[in-house]
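ok new one. same drill as before - structure tokens go in, u give me an amino acid for every spot. 606 of them this time. try not to just spam alanines like last time pls lmao
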């Protein structure tokens, strides 16, 4: 049976429930939603299909209830029901009530009691009624959250303050996470207990020798990379993020604060939520003097990434996680000081990064932050670039470089170091040291230097034939063509594509952009001809330099610092979830060549 492209399994159970739901759909849908009678095993329909009910409490794996539109009418139906309907309906409901009552929070318990009463009284079959019920329970929920907050802040006395707090809870990222975490903890527990032994693939000798390429071995919630399609942040592609994430009043590109909210919660934030987060970050951005002193202890000729990692290490002195750990915090609370550290770190890294830029290239003439600006615009301002287009570029730049699933060198390093319960500053500083390698984040520096060397040798109006020769010269001297190739991607990086679109819109006549466009035609066939390169297409770093260069940020050695500022959003978001989910110490098994040879000999003789 198909409803809007959705295949319903167990059609007999479905019919049984449809009959029941025809009589009393409201009771059944509420039961499924609030008593937890829903299954994660149910086939999820296309997420864009808004007619399907969200599965709210994937705790009690018996049935999945969906609400589907048929013509003008709502239909309620149940799928993946292994037991006879009667069993689930009559026997399991009270059990589920009890189960949920014991396992849920106070607010949820209220739901259960009320819906249990509703169930007994045969709720009327009316969508209007359902709407008012939803309004009622949302108010109960808000009231309950408010009450617990008031409990913590006993000075509050009047209802006006209460109302303000109610709205501030929705604006508060930490409160949002607080609500999400138990759900995700249960989800992971269930995954482990029900599917812990399911195999994900075979490990080959090639994988062990070849940098674990293609080996699935990490849990990373904030983004997922597809070899052909590129990155999705919490399920959203870059063009989708550009469409749905709030932009600055005068701009079109996503605000990085919105992306951060999305990475952390999996939800697209409202404009107001983004503004609140922007203010929160601005209020956390003070950097102690000893951080600047630590940077100043290095010669100003030190690579900017060395200065940046040193600055982040100096920020560590204020780690909330370290303090909390030393005073014996319970592991169930680890995520909270991690959250504080991560938000502080994200807020402070642009200040440190801008200080390094001004120290190295502008005679140490620092520019104070402007708290009225958003994160990206303020960073651009502190660097010394107040052109509105540069601010837009910075918002886009920070958004697209933030996260690239968990296996890339910087993200993996951050996660690995964090798994030892090193605090977010220690973890992120380690990640930066990985980002500073030329095969990873330093490639953006290498690209612009390489492009400039092309121009120096052959001029800006180089022909495609000359360019091809230059590419071969680079390859023949044992170097890589920077900005091309990738460990996972097998098509043009969508981050390259969106930067190209930005250039076509704002700087189509820039000579270096035109050279980058020419390279897009010349390099892939050459790399393909080389025969060994798995992905001849450009990656994110092939484009960023010429955009920055166009707006006056010409110092290529600094570019990886910008990448690092952006990556703090992704790595820190995942670190918070690492601690919230209680992820384990990372400790894969290693072997020697002797071991591999002996193993292969045994395998071939057996
Ligand atoms: N130029 C020349 N040779 C290349 C390139 C390239 N752009 N890309 C791959 N190869 C070579 C690679 O060095 C290897 O050679 P060998 O067997 O002699 O060691 C061979 O092709 C096979 O490599 P792949 O399996 O295609 O790539 P791998 O997954 O090992 O490495 C990169 C991925 C990204 C390290 C590689 O493509 C590269 O070095 N690219 C240039 C540097 C770069 O742009 N890095 C930035 C990546 C994105 N980021 O921001 O981190
Ligand atoms: C990244 O953004 O981290 C790079 O594209 C490298 C990778 O994903 O391996």
């Amino acid at each position: 049976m198909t409803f809007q492209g959705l295949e319903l399994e167990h059609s007999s159970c479905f019919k049984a429930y449809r009959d029941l739901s025809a009589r009393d759909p409201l009771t059944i849908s509420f039961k499924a939603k609030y008593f937890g009678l829903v299954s994660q095993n149910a086939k999820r329909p296309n997420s864009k299909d808004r007619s399907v009910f969200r599965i709210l409490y994937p705790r009690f794996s018996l049935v999945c209830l969906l609400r589907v539109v048929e013509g003008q009418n709502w239909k309620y139906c149940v799928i993946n029901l292994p037991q006879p309907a009667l069993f689930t309906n009559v026997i399991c409901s009270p059990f589920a009530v009890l189960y949920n009552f014991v396992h849920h929070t106070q607010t949820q318990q209220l739901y259960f009691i009320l819906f249990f009463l509703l169930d007994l009284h045969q709720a009327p079959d009316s969508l209007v009624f359902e709407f008012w019920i939803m309004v009622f329970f949302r108010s109960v929920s808000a009231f309950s959250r408010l009450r617990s907050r008031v409990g913590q802040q006993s000075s509050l006395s009047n209802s006006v303050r209460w109302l303000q707090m109610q709205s501030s809870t929705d604006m508060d990222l930490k409160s949002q996470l607080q609500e999400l975490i138990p759900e995700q903890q249960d989800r992971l527990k269930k995954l482990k207990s029900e599917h812990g032994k399911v195999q994900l693939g075979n490990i080959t000798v090639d994988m062990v020798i070849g940098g674990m390429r293609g080996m699935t071995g990490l849990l990373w919630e904030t983004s997922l990379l597809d070899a052909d399609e590129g990155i999705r942040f919490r399920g959203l592609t870059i063009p989708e993020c550009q469409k749905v994430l709030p932009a600055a009043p005068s701009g079109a590109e996503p605000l990085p604060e919105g992306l951060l909210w999305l990475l952390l919660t999996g939800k697209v934030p409202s404009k107001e939520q983004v503004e609140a987060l922007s203010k929160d970050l601005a209020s956390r951005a003070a950097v102690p003097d000893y951080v600047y002193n630590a940077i100043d202890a290095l010669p100003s000729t030190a690579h900017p990434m060395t200065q940046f990692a040193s600055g982040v290490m100096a920020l560590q002195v204020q780690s909330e996680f370290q303090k909390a750990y030393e005073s014996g915090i319970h592991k169930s609370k680890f995520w909270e000081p991690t959250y504080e550290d991560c938000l502080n770190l994200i807020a402070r890294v642009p200040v440190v990064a801008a200080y390094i830029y001004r120290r190295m290239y502008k005679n140490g003439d620092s520019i104070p932050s402007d708290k009225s600006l958003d994160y990206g615009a303020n960073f651009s301002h502190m660097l010394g670039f107040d052109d509105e287009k540069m601010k837009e570029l910075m918002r886009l730049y920070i958004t697209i470089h933030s996260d690239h699933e968990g296996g890339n060198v910087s993200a993996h390093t951050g996660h690995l170091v964090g798994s030892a319960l090193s605090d977010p500053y220690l973890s992120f500083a380690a990640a930066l040291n990985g980002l500073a390698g030329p095969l990873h984040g330093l490639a953006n520096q290498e690209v612009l230097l390489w492009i400039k060397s092309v121009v120096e040798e052959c001029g800006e109006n180089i022909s495609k034939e000359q360019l091809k020769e230059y590419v071969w010269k680079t390859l023949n001297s044992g170097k890589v063509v920077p900005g091309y190739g990738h460990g996972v991607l097998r098509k043009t990086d969508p981050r390259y594509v969106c930067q190209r679109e930005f250039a076509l819109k704002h700087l189509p006549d820039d000579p270096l952009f035109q050279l980058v466009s020419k390279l897009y035609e010349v390099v892939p066939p050459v790399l393909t001809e080389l025969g060994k390169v798995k992905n001849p297409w450009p990656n994110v770093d092939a484009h960023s330099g010429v955009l920055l260069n166009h707006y006056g940020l010409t110092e290529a050695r600094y570019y990886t610092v910008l990448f690092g500022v952006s990556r703090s959003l992704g790595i820190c978001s995942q670190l918070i979830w690492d601690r919230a989910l209680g992820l384990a110490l990372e400790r894969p098994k290693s072997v020697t060549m002797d071991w591999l040879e002996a193993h292969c000999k045994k395998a071939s003789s057996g």
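Residues 1-93, 99-109, 115-128, 147-167 have pLDDT under 50 and may be disordered. and btw The CA atoms of residues 249 and 271 lie 10 Å apart.
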